[in-house]
Amino acid sequence: MPQPSSRLSAGLGLRPQHFDAARDCGADGLWFEVHPENYMVDGGPRLGWLEAVRARHPLSLHGVAMSLAADAAPDGEHLRRFKALVDRFEPALISEHLAWSTWRGTYHPDLLPFPRTRDALARIAANVGRAQDALKRRIAIENPSHYLRFDGHELGEIEFLAELARRTGCGLLLDVNNVYVSARNLGTDPAAYIDAFPAGCVDEIHLAGHSADPNLGEALLIDSHDAPVAPAVWTLYERLVARTGPRPTLVERDDNLPEFSALFAERERAQRTLGALERRAA
Amino acid sequence: MNLVATDPAPSRLGTFQQQFAQALVAAAPPVDGDASLAELFAQPGFAVYRNTVHKGCIDALQANYPAVTRLVGEEWIRAAAAEFARLHRPASPMLLEYGAQFAAFLEGFAPAAELPYLAGVARLDRFWTEAHGARDELPLEPARVAALTQAELEFTRLRPHASARWAWFHEMPIFTLWSRNRHAEGAHDDIEWRGEGALVVRPFDSVSPVPLGRADVVFLDACAAGGTLADAAVAALAAEAEADLAQSMARLLSAGAFAYCDTERT
Questions:
Q1: Which of B54, B84, B56 is nearest to B68 (CA)?
Q2: Which residues of chain B are within 8 Å of residue A101 when distances are taken between CB atoms?
Q3: Which residue of A28, A245, A248, B62 is surrounded by the most CB atoms within 10 Å?
């Protein structure tokens, strides 16, 4: 399977409101990530906009709906549409989630959890393999945010992801905000998670903002992508890349969208961190 | 001996998903049944999933129906969308397409009874979505049709453009209402209350809606059904005896309503 590009530095999630600014931004190493589900149309200006951005910048396709952790094979029509986008846009990176969203013909617009059993691992490894075969590309699988304490886990999350990567050859996408949110919600140590994550498998890193639950406050953090990256998440990120070395890093923002320049300033912070690591290595 | 095929025993993962999916959309998370699942659904974090799924459906509907939203306001559409989502869960992750049945739902939605135009406006919002993402296709050049002889015209068949969506609305100025709210312009006090047709089409990069008369709509219907221009003319005149068909053709051609012209006599 082709390996992801090593040239990518820091990128930004791309929203339609920012198309023009994104297309025209000439920053060195800048790349953009989109949800392919928003481009699974037969034609029209949506694809034209993305083509115009892609003509100047590398692109990453970050799927939210393959439902790889469902006890069912990924939908064939969905994979066919995904592959058409891969062929058209030749993304530098492709990723998906360790989660499910479609079950028996209904799509639940969220990334849903499951008990990490050995049976689930076998099923999800088969699903990841099927997706990679259909796309003819390696994909990176992202660690989820957690809001629930499960009794039924047989494997730790890192153990589960590492084994998934070993069995399928997939990469991993480490979302540092998800690590922080999950650790706060479940009472675990986010730094220990960051330190134990298999560095060699990390194809991409995500950074995003979170918010406190409107009713429960800080006792329940929500992976809301509606705020700047939190200071504690930046600290974890710097700890992570000090160990892994520079990796393609994305700043995500999906809601409460600021001006492009505000997102770009966050991207610049990640870019400086990666640049310092590269200079040190040189 | 039991010869009836039975499904294999569901896996633990599948059983979990079935119960989790049901609990997500139930009026309230179940408290009986499997004790470990009931304990899971009772945790405050379970509401995060319920809320995200619920909000995702409502946000998508509101985004897909902007003219309806402007007419009724955000609170109203979100309440209607919540009821719609309860009845029609998304079948596909392409939420741009979610809500195909929303106009039909509004026709029977009791709080919309005093807004008889709302379902029509919703249909045009839907037409816009479909036209925007339709297959790209070059529209038929009006000059191509202008070059045909009178004899050729009779047997010519015009196929509507892949993005074209059209409808006639009896007794209600749906196109004007929709257009003003879609583009957030003007008040409604000068609108003449009469039937209107609408064509929503994207011949090139932009969706270009145009108002149509009764004869235009019938003419397009006949072309879409595979009729010749002679057939379409007969149908249009039957619907509106005083229609100016040359004007209808010119209006439709300049809007980019057609993509293909077949002059073969069959």
A1: B84
A2: 93
A3: A248
Residue B73 and residue B147 in one domain:
no
| B34 and B119 share one domain | yes
Contact: A104, B13; criterion CB under 8 Å: no
How many domains are contained in chain B? Answer: 2
Residue at A138: amino acid letter: R
- What is the residue-level pLDDT of chain B in tens, covering all 266 positions? 445 555 566 789 999 999 999 999 998 777 777 888 899 999 999 999 999 999 999 999 999 999 999 999 999 999 999 999 999 999 999 999 999 999 999 999 999 999 999 999 999 999 999 999 999 999 999 999 999 999 999 999 999 999 999 999 999 999 999 999 998 776 667 888 999 999 999 999 999 999 999 999 999 999 999 999 999 999 999 999 999 999 999 999 999 999 988 988 76
Domain of A15: which CATH number? 3.20.20.150
B81 lies in the same domain as B19: yes
| Number of domains into which chain A is organized | 1
Residue B260's CB: how many other CB atoms inside 10 A?
Answer: 15
CB B220 within 8 A of CB B239: no
Note whether B72 and B87 are same-domain residues. Answer: yes
Asked if residue B151 is part of any domain, the answer here is yes
Region label for B21, one of left (φ > 0), alpha (ψ between -120 and 50) or beta (otherwise): alpha
CA distance A187 to chain B (A): 13
Whether residue B114 sits in one domain with residue B23: yes
ipTM of the prediction: 0.94
Judged by CB atoms closer than 8 Å, whether chains meet at A46 and B14 is answered as no
Does residue B251 fall inside a structural domain? Answer: yes
CB contact under 8 A, B133 and A42: yes
Closest CA to B232 of B148, B156, B169, B150: B156
Residues B43 and B139 grouped into a single domain:
no
Residue of chain B whose Cα is closest to the Cα of A181: B45
Kindly identify which residue of chain A lies nearest to residue B59, measuring between CA atoms. Answer: A109
Which residue from A42, A150, A219 is facing B40, i.e. has the nearest CB? A150
Instruction: Examine the domain organization and report whether B85 and B203 are in the same domain.
Output: no
AA letter at B7: D
**pTM of the full structure:** 0.94
Q: B interface toward A at CB cutoff 8 Å? A: 10-14, 16-18, 20-21, 24-25, 36, 39-40, 43-46, 48-49, 52-53, 56-57, 60, 89-96, 132-137, 162-163, 202, 205-206
Contact B93 A65 (CB under 8 A): yes
- Across the interface, of B13, B162, B205, the residue whose CB is closest to A120 is B13
Q: Is the residue at A5 inside a domain? A: no
Q: Which domain holds residue B220?
A: 135-262
